[in-house]
Amino acid sequence: MTRTLTSKPLLPPVPAALTAMLSIQAGAAVAKGLFATIGALGTTSLRLALAALILGAIHQKALRSLDVQGWKAILPYGLVLGMMNLTFYQSVQHLPLGLAVTIEFIGPLGVAVFSSRKPMDYLWAVLAGLGILLISPWAPGSRVSLIGIFWAVLAGVFWGLYIVMGQRVLRQVSSRQAVAGGMLIACLLPLPLGLFTTGAKLFEPSILLFGLMVAVLSSALPYSLEMVALKALPARTFGILMSVEPAIAAVLGLLLLQEHLTPLQWVAVVCVIGASIGSTLGSRDTSHAEVLN
User: Fold this and answer.
1) How far apart are CA 168 and CA 50, in angstroms?
2) Has the keyword Transmembrane helix been applied to this entry (predicted)?
3) Confidence label for 290 from pLDDT (cuts 50, 70 and 90)
4) I need a labelling partner for 243 at 20 to 30 A (CA). Which of 64, 125, 127, 174 fits?
C-alpha cells in the first residue's frame, strides 16, 4: 500500500521502516485491548472506518479524480484489504500477537515462492512450514488455539492476495487513489458487522479515542514512514527489514500484553523470519511499486 511522503522526512529510511513496523504492531496491541469491550469485529470496523476517514481527508483530491473504471480496479483490492484486517483481528483474539503475525507471514512467503519457483525457495517454504508446525497445538507444551491458527492462516491467504491485487491495481490507478479508495472499500463488510454486533457502544468517546489511536498507529503513521523507506532503499533491503516483523510483534506482545511465548514458539518465529529473509535475498530486486503492498 502506498504512503504519504513529505518533502523533508523526519527519519532516515532504515529507522523509518523499523518505526513503521513498531507502529503497526503497537496499534495491533492497542486494538487487542479493545476486544473485551467491543470485540474483534467492532474493533476491525472502527479501525478501518477511522483510517478511511483519515486517508480520505489526506488524499481527497486523488479520490475526486477517480472515474468508474478506477473504482472497478480498486474494488477487489479494497475487499481483500478488509478481509485481511478482519481475519487478522480474529486470529489475534485467540492467539498471542507474535504468533498470529508469524503464521500470517505465510502469505507473502507463498507469493514469493510461487512467483519465483527457484529450488532454493522451496527450502525456505519448508523452513517456514517447520515454524508453523512448532506453533501448532500438537507441538510439545503447546496450548495454542486451533481456531486462532485457522484465522491466522486465512489472514495470511488474504495477505498474499492483497500483495497480488496491490501490484495489479497500481498499474491502473495512482498510489494515492489506491490507498484511500482501497481503505474506503475495505469498510464495506466489517463496518455493518461491527455495528450489528456492537451497536451504540462503538460511538462512546473513550472507544472512539482508542479506535483513533489504532487507526493512526496501524494505518496513517506507518504508511507515511514506509513510503520514506521505499523511496530511499532497494526493494530487497526493504524486504529484509520487514522480515523481522514477527519478532517485533512477539516482543511488543510480551511488553504490552504480557503474552509469553514458549521456547519452541520463539524458535518458530526465528524459522519464519529466516525463511522470509532467505526468500527475499534469493528474489530479484523488484521495483518499489511491486513491494508497496
Assistant:
1) 26
2) yes
3) very low
4) 174
Does residue 134 surpass a pLDDT of 80?
yes
Question: In terms of DSSP H, where are the helices of the chain?
Answer: 13-58, 60-64, 68-94, 97-104, 106-116, 119-135, 146-169, 175-186, 190-198, 205-215, 221-232, 235-242, 245-257, 263-282
- How far is it, in rounded angstroms, from Cα 251 to Cα 289? 30
Model confidence pLDDT, tens digit, residues 35-89:
999 999 999 999 999 999 998 998 899 899 999 999 999 999 999 999 999 999 9
Rounded Cα distance between 107 and 143, Å, is: 24
Residue-averaged pLDDT of the chain: 85
Q: Are 88 and 35 in contact (CB under 8 A)?
A: no
Cβ(162)–Cβ(74) below 8 Å: no
150: which 3 cell numbers?
485457522
| CA–CA distance, 82 with 88 (Å, rounded to integer) | 10
Question: Of the spans 12-16, 120-124, 176-180, 247-251, which averages the highest pLDDT?
Answer: 247-251
Q: Is residue 216 within 8 Å of 30, Cβ to Cβ?
A: no
d(Cα 53, Cα 228) in Å, to the nearest integer?
22
